[in-house]
Amino acid sequence: MGLRWPREYGGQGLSLGHELVRAEEFQRAKAPPVANVIGLTLCAPALLESGSEAQKRRFLANILSAEEIWVQGYSEPGAGSDLAGLSTRAERVDGAWLVNGQKIWTTNGMHGDWVFCLVRTDPAAKKHEGIGFLLIDMKSPGVEVRPIMNATTGRDFCEVFFTGVRVPVENMVGEPTQGWQIANQVLRHERGADISVVRYGDLLAEIAERARSARRGKTRLSDDARFRQRWSQLRVEYEVLRQGVLKAMEDLKDGRQPGPETSRFKLQQSEFEQRLMRLATDVQGTYGQLWLDGPRGLDGGIWQWRELWSRAYTIYGGSSEIQRNILSERVLGLPRG
Fold first, then answer.
1. Which end of the chain is least crowded, N or C, by CB within 10 Å?
2. CB contact at 8 A, 70 and 63
3. Domain ranges within the chain, ordered by starting residue
4. Distance (Å, whole) CA 101 – CA 164
5. Are 219 and 226 in contact (CB under 8 A)?
6. Residue 124: pLDDT band with limits 50, 70, 90
């Protein structure tokens, strides 16, 4: 992991091409999901781009080794799509930041060692200008984590409460009013071309294999014209996604950093994911209604779990509606509606 990171921070100083090969080989080996994915893909880029030398030395090696698991503290009960409306406060008191407030939908919050958190540092400033990007130890006194059960019966999401949490001043990334700019850097990475799309090729192959063994009456499902049309459309969309990733890699190699156009990848991939998982459960017919580990469930019910989980893809990282607004206003230059 961290193939592109500078060597002085534990990386290997290699190219995006090497990163793509790594992702392909992980997928080929059916490797489990990467540990500390939020730290690796979101927090680390923020530190590499905006962190102090001391912050890079302190945190990056432990992110890479997964000795410290990171979670994201952005959304609040009253500030989701309008993230700049957040109200969690950080005040300078006796040489530290005193944090009070609440975050929600904190993925894997119950496992987190650290959280990178957007906090209101200047209530008098315009809402986009009074925000800081603060690194908070989840073991600090005053931090409370409450898991939330979601539609898959999992407890991956959490709400996190901060009550009088003292945070060292050196844990502020950048200036106390630069949090919105840093957050947008992070979101561009979250929304941008994702090399993990290589997994969709295998998933499409698995769906095709299941269709060859499934029957509708006396006909194999794989011979059904409607199934073939749906599968072929998804195969075309997958190739578009893959080519988009390759193009984005070329842009980065040429020194062009990701901008608001990354919302296109977020929109395409999240909606593609939902259509793909719906097809997979439809292929199972009535068995597609059975849940995990049921005695008659196909493939252990994993496709049903994936379809329910895919509902989150068009919400987190900015909803599809937000992505369309960004594309229309910042990329196409259309007026606000």
1. C
2. yes
3. 7-65, 70-178, 192-331
4. 9
5. no
6. very high
